[in-house]
Design a protein that fits this description.
The chain is of the alpha/beta class and 357 residues long. The chain has one domain: Histone deacetylase domain (Arginase, Chain A), CATH 3.40.800.20. It contains 10 helices and 8 strands. The protein has an 8-stranded parallel beta sheet with strand order 2-1-3-8-7-4-5-6, with helices on both faces. The longest helix is centred in the C-terminal third of the chain and has 22 residues. The structure holds zinc ion. Zinc ion binds next to loops.
Length: 357
Amino acid sequence: MPRKTAFLYTDDFLAYDLGGKHPLQQRRLQLVDRKLASLGAFETITRLAPTSVDEALLGRVHTAEYLEVVRQASKPNHGLDLRRYGLGPGDTPAFPGMWEASKVYAGGSVDAARLVLSGEAEIAFNVAGGLHHAHPWKAYGFCVFNDLALAITTFLEAGLERVMYVDIDVHHGDGVQVCHWDDPRVLTLSLHESGRWLFPGTGGVEETGGENAPGSAINVPYASYSGDEVWWPGFEQIVPEAFERFAPQALVLQLGADAHFADPLAHLQVTSRTWMRAVEALLVLGKDIPIVVTGGGGYNIATVERLWTLVALTCAGLSCPDSLHDTEVPMLDAEQQRTARAYLDSQLDALRGGLGW
Ligand SMILES: [Zn+2]
């Protein structure tokens, strides 16, 4: 069903550069933009450059101390000990211009929230957003600022009382969960490869929200190597019911592309058809409310280009060329899939019990 869709993009997104050998390669974002242009999608989709996030808003998600460290570490010869802030050598290295570059990708998600609040768009897609591991006080897992929490905060400050966040990235959306852990106005729902086997190690079914917000966090962990026949039932059995029960006034979607079987950093075996089935189901659930869409993880660049192009086309109700879908499917071991399904079923039983469903 076509909806008025905005796509946030600027080549300045490429300045969020964690290094040539780092798995996070922002040229994937440019490939999506150019692919959409080559398909003529911007005749229907409004393409907008994001603005830099406002620093007062940043301070409502991140601590003043952390923000000052990011600002200083963005300059050469800062002399700071960055490890306690999650920066420095490793997953999230500091880099020159980090402060400005991070404010642009975060600004894209805030702009997306404002566009759908004002009605200029019904769905707004910040392809550079989705940096779900950033915590209020530290960088984590390639993420400096938590653009998703900034978008959610923008909705709350506009007076919305129920905002639902759904994260289908293969990694647990820990940073967003932490930011809104004790706020009953925000439901965070993450589907991911279990923290038993994958970074960041959290996202168990027992994590269901703080004492002021019981049931406001929902986690669906999967066994490694779960394929479509396991991943989809986990989605289908939890997401629509969570949506119906919570009745959100806006949706924020983190559509990391790394649950796909070709992703080199994780082990789920989801195909493009099933992944898009979930995206379409989310768009149908949210058909009457504003939706912010973001990217997220995704380390097989050709796959990311295809999946996020499919997302943008689908949001706007444009036809999707078959060539954007997988041309091969993974070989799955039947016994392994049975074990993965049994693991999922046991997790869902525990989750339903913990939520009182
Ligand atoms: Zn991820």
